[in-house]
Amino acid sequence: MKVVVEADGGSRGNPGPAGYGAVVFAADRSEVLAERRLALGVATNNVAEYRGLIAGLTAAGEVGAREVEVRMDSKLVVEQMSGRWKVKHPDMVPLNREAAELVRGFDRVTFQWIPRAQNSHADRLANEAMDAAAGVEPAERPEKAEGRDLERPVEVAKKPAAPGWTGATGEPTRLLLLRHGQTPLSVERRYSGRGNPALTELGEKQAAAAAAYLAGRDDIAAIVASPLGRAQQTAGALARKIGLDVSTLDELTETDFGAWEGLTFAEAIEKHPDIHQQWRGDTSVSAPGGESFDTVLERVTIARDKLVASYAGSTVVVVSHVTPIKMLLQLALDVGPSLLYRLHLDLASLSVAEFYPDGGASVRLINETSYL
């Protein structure tokens, strides 16, 4: 018998009060064969997601399934269970092993990522579990659902999501924006665009400190970096720490400063005084042989769209340069280009921007350097 398992987990605080939900459908999804839901106490989103998967696979085995199609909106769980992403975080390793052991008990198991909106049944069960643990009363008394193995309300008074001041809804794609560490050009405050200086000794220490700080999270699904060496070095320090590969996105590269590459501010003014003056106030003006900030914004917008599409609802570390990071923050804040000239970002600093499926966005953090 073939079944479809849909599972979900959530945490109100990450970590915070958590719960999971799982539902087993007949292969054509015409009938619900089993449901599971449970509050977990304090846990993270990823722990809850894995617990939901384990409960769904267990329930599938109990109804006699031999083939299982697992559908989840957790890209992390789907990619790790499919073997495409490594599992290194200590909280995830035993859960992944437990789920893998259950998988081996079936003839065939496939994993598919689905948007959150298509996982509403399991999401509702997870929220019911968390609501019950929090003492939130359902709208109607529970009735035994025919053919199911738990009691649940016919209509549930769902606790509304808290959109905050932004009003954005849905599960955001969270970008942890990490600027690369120090290079010889940054020490001398020289234009550093498409040149490829390596990190200094201090820059390597900064990258290691940032990696140690970020390794304390258990929600990082991917690391994506600019192709330039200083960003790759910084990303590599984190990749080695948490066991993920680094993906490269060309659109995250730094501005091409053309003839000003390697020059100080004063040297660029001396060489091209009129153009430099225009460049400082007009984002459509480029350095001789370089690119304008308007052009950079176009490709950074493409990068943002690719990240949101590829890692919907997940947390991604984006290792890049000062200009692309400022522009990602500019897009999240929906403000004009004056931000580029007024916002300071330190080397190896961390900022956080979230982009929601409904088009909303928010900025959670700018220029965190406490770990350095």
Tell me what you see in this structure:
The chain has 372 residues and is of the alpha/beta class. The protein folds into two domains: 159 residues, Ribonuclease H-like superfamily/Ribonuclease H (Nucleotidyltransferase, domain 5), CATH 3.30.420.10; 196 residues, Phosphoglycerate mutase-like (Rossmann fold). The protein is 36% helix and 23% strand. The protein contains twelve helices and 13 strands. The strands form three sheets. Strands 10-9-11-8-12-13 form a six-stranded mixed β-sheet, with helices on both faces. A five-stranded mixed β-sheet has the order 3-2-1-4-5. A two-stranded antiparallel ribbon has the order 6-7. About 7% of the residues have low confidence.
